[in-house]
């Protein structure tokens, strides 16, 4: 059987390598984004650059969107130039952005009226996971649509799980972002504590990584901490958005997030100090400031 034609909307830090992995897997990928250089990159990788969303999705069997937040998802999905008005009935729309669960539920309902199927499928693993095609993909939607999408997901990630009905993928992603933020904060506090104590930081992080304190976060971000390298793999600005999603969703269902609420404020503080464009491992900078270290 021939592979489905894919339209990819949003070619940022995550979207570009993910779309390129689909091209490597043999898929015909047509992409659209606002930045000309990103379209040129897609074309150089073997994809096709479209001049509009309508052009990208018109002949697609599967449309994948990967944009920063709910407003951007709504902007590309709705309206005369959006996905829902221009994709064919029977198209599968997979939104891999990290947005509010309610936005995903509403999108699925509105798409159904157009004969378009929807999955919410946010990811975890950051830029490195996108490049290496080892992302964790948490999916909300119908089993039949999930089964149809699985080969596409398998070209992008390693852990692929249907978590429940529409919006469930986004709920699980919100929980993921809560865990990641708290974990980075704990690692950052440990780094400052270790350095101020005069311990060999690299040796300390190596041994911590091999014990119960070890985590994917520590393994992925260790070099960021050691080298003070905060080039964005996942920006503070986006994690600030995600912490807003999880705290709001938790309030709606009556779940207390005492530690998460504090870390959400620390992320917001770091952003207010001008570090929003840095990687979320830059939470280390906030701890250093609180500890009297010149940053």
Number of helices: 14
Number of strands: 9
Q: Name the average pLDDT.
A: 97
Q: Low-confidence parts lasting 5 or more residues at pLDDT below 50? A: none
The percentage helix is: 40-55%
Query: Ends: how far apart?
Result: 57 Å
Shape, principal axes of CA atoms: globular
Secondary structure class reads: alpha/beta
Strand order in the largest sheet: 3-2-1-4-5-6
Order of helices and strands: EHEHEHEHHEHEEHEHEHHHHHH
**Largest beta-sheet characterization:** 6 strands, parallel
What's the gyration radius in Å? 20 Å
Strand content: 5-15%
Any overview of this molecule?
The termini are far apart. The model has no long low-confidence stretch (mean pLDDT 97). Strand 8 (135-140), helix 8 and strand 9 form a beta-alpha-beta unit. 55% of the residues lie in helices and 13% in strands. The protein contains 14 helices and nine strands. It has 295 residues and is of the alpha/beta class. The chain has helices at 15-24, 36-44, 53-57, 70-77, 83-86, 101-112, 126-132, 143-154, 168-196, 201-209, 216-227, 236-253, 258-275, 283-290; strands at 6-9, 29-32, 48-49, 62-65, 92-95, 117-120, 123-124, 135-140, 157-164. The longest helix has 29 residues, at 168-196. The strands form two sheets. The chain has a six-stranded parallel β-sheet with strand order 3-2-1-4-5-6, with helices on both faces. The protein has a three-stranded mixed β-sheet with strand order 7-8-9. Helix 9 (168-196) crosses helix 13 (258-275), helix 10 runs antiparallel to helix 11 and helix 12 packs antiparallel against helix 13 (258-275). Keywords: NAD, Oxidoreductase.
């Amino acid at each position: 059987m021939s592979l489905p034609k894919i339209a990819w909307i949003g070619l940022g830090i995550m979207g570009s390598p993910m779309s390129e992995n689909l091209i490597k897997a043999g898929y015909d990928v047509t992409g659209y984004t606002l930045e000309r250089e990103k379209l040129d990159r897609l074309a150089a990788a073997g994809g096709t650059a479209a001049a509009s969303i309508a052009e990208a999705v018109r002949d697609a069997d599967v449309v994948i969107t990967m944009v920063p937040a709910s407003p951007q998802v709504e902007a590309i999905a709705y309206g005369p130039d959006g996905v829902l008005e221009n994709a064919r009935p029977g198209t599968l729309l997979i939104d891999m952005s990290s947005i509010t669960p309610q936005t995903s539920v509403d999108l699925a309902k509105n798409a159904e009226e157009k004969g378009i199927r929807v999955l919410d499928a946010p990811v975890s693993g950051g830029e490195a996971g996108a490049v290496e095609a080892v992302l964790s993909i948490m999916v909300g939607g119908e089993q039949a649509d999930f089964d149809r999408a699985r080969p596409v997901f398998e070209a992008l990630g390693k852990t692929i799980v249907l978590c429940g009905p529409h919006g469930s993928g986004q709920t699980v992603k919100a929980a993921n972002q809560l865990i990641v933020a708290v974990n980075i904060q704990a690692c950052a506090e440990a780094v400052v504590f270790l350095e101020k104590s005069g311990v060999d930081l690299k040796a300390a992080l190596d041994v911590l990584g091999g014990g119960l304190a070890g985590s994917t976060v520590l393994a992925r971000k260790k070099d960021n901490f050691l080298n003070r390298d905060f080039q964005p793999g996942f920006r503070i600005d986006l994690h600030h958005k995600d912490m807003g999603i999880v705290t709001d969703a938790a309030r709606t269902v009556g779940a207390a997030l005492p530690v998460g609420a504090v870390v959400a404020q620390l992320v917001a503080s770091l952003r207010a100090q001008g570090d929003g464009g840095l990687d979320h491992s830059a939470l280390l900078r906030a701890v250093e400031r609180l500890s009297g270290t010149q940053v």
